Amino acid sequence: MSVKIISVSKALPEFTRNTDQIIPFLDTWLSGQEDRFVRKVKKIFENAGVDRRYSIMSPEEVFSDLSFEERNDIYIRESIKLGRQCLTAALEKASWKSQDLDYIITVSCTGIMIPSLDAYLINALGMRRDIVRLPVTEMGCAAGVSGILYAKNFLKANPGKRAAVVAVESPTATFQLNDFSMANIVSAAIFGDGAACVLLSSHADDDGPEVVDEEMYHFDNAEQMMGFKLTNTGLQMVLDVAVPDTIAQHFPDIIHPFLKKNGMGIGAVDHLIFHPGGKKIIQVVEALFGGLGKNIDDTKEVLRLYGNMSSATVLYVLERIMDTQPSPGETGLMLSFGPGFTAQRILLRW
Question: What is the mean pLDDT of residues 4-27?
């Protein structure tokens, strides 16, 4: 019995701007700051590798003094809308009905809602009353891969079942107007909003790439490197400048033993499906694997077109790979990183 990925679909919020259209808003936001600092911030935005980003709020709302409550209310409203859109699209791709789902996992870290998103989607799409729910929060950018990992374990234990993983993220809703730290500036420069859905199955009649193996990798004593601090004004970004170098130090231990366990090396991997955490992390990966003839062009393109959408972003990369219809026998390595600090890995075979 195998677990397969059947379809992937995305949904984007209505507001979108190119990076050069965001720059004028920085002048207003940074009014009163030293000219040298303003120039530095603009360079960070211009050199982030992000040409365009989407948001659940207009730029005027993002760069405003909306309260935490007001931003979170928008997050809840738009998360339900985007979650429904991407799940509906994924079901249509798979030719499934909502009642075909046995398990629904929703992942998000950029807002707070109780009941969680899955409850709203179950009612909105008329799912079965016995569907199993699992909301996943507080895992940041790693949660998209985590959701697939949890779905795989559920489906492996329950043959003939079907699952949906829905990731909805709105990092722009966490922007802190009065925070001029590098963490807030860098996150504003690289992050965007978006949603994605992956459908998986352990049903014999369903076809798609098989989830061959999965593992988590925990970085010791690295809790302080990435996350959010809950403040009176909302979720304040925590982002250590050492993240790219720390990932680089651990990369051999993250990649090679996992592949060796599955009887292969990095040279045998046809598709690198990596989370685009940011330009520096992409440069680290390219330095490590470029000499092996591997590329992460799809990862770079997703960052350029949408920015880092936290947990949903790697699913955009997966969708691009699946749309190319890889040949039978080809393999893919999914990888994402998140607070903890942690790495999540999945091996796929078409």
Answer: 96
- Spatial neighbors of 334 by CB under 8 A, at least 6 apart, are 145, 148, 273, 274, 314, 318, 344, 345, 346, 347, 348
Question: What is the C-alpha separation between 190 and 222, in angstroms, rounded?
Answer: 22
As given in the structure block, the two tokens for residue 153 are 């374990």
CATH of the domain at 19: 3.40.47.10
Q: Strand 162-169 and strand 132-136: pairing?
A: unpaired
How many domains does the structure of the chain reveal?
Answer: 2
Q: Are residues 34 and 181 in the same domain?
A: yes
Tell me the pTM.
0.95
- Give me the pLDDT at residue 278, please: 85
pLDDT tens profile 33-55: 999 999 999 999 999 999 999 99
Q: Verify that 191 and 229 share a domain, yes or no.
A: no
What is the pairing mode between strands 234-239 and 4-11? unpaired
User: Tokens 């994402």 label which residue?
Assistant: 336
- Cβ atoms of residues 144 and 205 within 8 Å: no
Cα–Cα distance measured from residue 77 to residue 64, given in angstroms and rounded to the nearest whole number: 19
3-state secondary structure of 322: helix
Which domain range does residue 59 map to?
4-201
Q: Are residues 183 and 252 located together in one domain of the fold?
A: no
User: 140 with 180, same domain?
Assistant: yes
Say how far apart CA 106 and CA 94 lie, in whole Å: 19
- Tell me the two tokens of residue 91: 């079901």
Distances (CA, A) of 43 to 22, 38, 195: 12, 9, 28
CA 4 to chain centre: 20
User: Rounded to whole angstroms, how far apart are CA atoms 276 and 325?
Assistant: 22
The overall average pLDDT reported for the chain is 94
Which of 201, 230, 262 delimits the end of a domain? 201
